[in-house]
Amino acid sequence: MTIRIIGGGIIGMATAYHLSVRGERPVVYEIDRAYETASFARSCGGLRSQFSTPGNILMSRYSIEFIKATTDVPFTPNGYLLLFDESRRGDHDQTLALQQDLGASTRSLSPNELAQLFPDMHVGDLYRGCLTTDSSEGWIDPVVLHGWYRDQCRAAGVDIRYGDYRDDRFASSDTIIITAGFWTRDIACRFGVDVPVQGEKHTVFQVQTARPQLTDCPLVADLESGVYFRPEGNGYIAGYDGNNEGEAEDLEPNWPSWDQVWEKLYHRFPTLFDAARMTGAWAGYYDSSTLDQNAIIDCHDNIHVATGFTGRGLMHSPAVGLAVTEQVLGIAPSFDLSGYRLGRDPLQEKYVI
Length: 353
Ligand SMILES: Cc1cc2nc3c(=O)[nH]c(=O)nc-3n(C[C@H](O)[C@H](O)[C@H](O)COP(=O)(O)OP(=O)(O)OC[C@H]3O[C@@H](n4cnc5c(N)ncnc54)[C@H](O)[C@@H]3O)c2cc1C
Fold this sequence. Notes:
D-Amino Acid Oxidase, Chain A, domain 2; 2 domains; six-stranded mixed sheet; FAD/NAD(P)-binding domain; binds flavin-adenine dinucleotide; globular; 18 strands; alpha/beta
């Protein structure tokens, strides 16, 4: 039996890595050697445990520890700050308790405490903010993590082939793992498996401010407005969940939405973003499940699929690679995958950033 992985992005390479650690030598097929449209290479590199479902929190806890302890990928430990207005009081109270129960170090701050830490922030319309300050959340360079998996795989004898998997003859006894982002839908269809996932174009803007960068600034996600930003270089990058475009044909950034993004940044940090300039932008595909925006990890006979990670495929890649490996090899699972199965009841993740 040969294990064949179609899609050599971050999930495919993480899966090949975990398989190789267990003595397997899978073949990985990647259609694009330059990774021009792959989502991981266009991601913001964020790692966080602030989610609303136990599965996503536990996958983050495992994955962040794995990246810090097992790889040599540089990690910027500035944390995440999620901002809640009054309408999200219930979500805040419930998910803070859940995250803390599951071992996350999320702290909740009142508007006054937020204003002391971030004097430039407008806090008048906030209920509370959730922050980590113990280096448990932050960001990495996604391409460096992918390169780490790839190098480990090569050293272990994994066969990485650049080109079309259809050029090879597959035996009916082969195990097929499809980890091709939202393209998984079309590939899985060829193998008779229906995977409800689509590519949603998500734009990230590069921003320069006249004022110096905030010291040790976390990734700030304003749940009310849908805008997030974090430091990058000597400026910032910023995204907005209100400008995602479903089933986009191209990856041209959503330029006109900059005005809305700026207004929301200015609302929250008026003095910081007052004289801000947008200096560039890029866009990439969020691989989004059309069921409920939660990931899909499942198998049908010898066909395994892992996709639908929206804005968390990079950070969850260590856990997902392990989960798929255990599924393929029939090893006792480290994670409860019931919330990720194809036939599940919808399970909404509230914090899609
Ligand atoms: C703008 C943006 C910001 C993001 N920010 C974050 C973040 O901060 N943190 C986070 O965790 N996640 C983030 N994400 C999400 C994350 O990038 C994705 O969830 C993740 O990359 C999914 O990994 P993947 O391996 O499934 O897909 P991909 O990374 O897209 O890899 C799929 C691979 O399959 C290949 N492929 C396609 N068709 C075929 C075929 N026929 N044969 C062989 N290979 C094929 C592609 O070329 C590609 O290399 C972001 C995404 C975007 C777009």
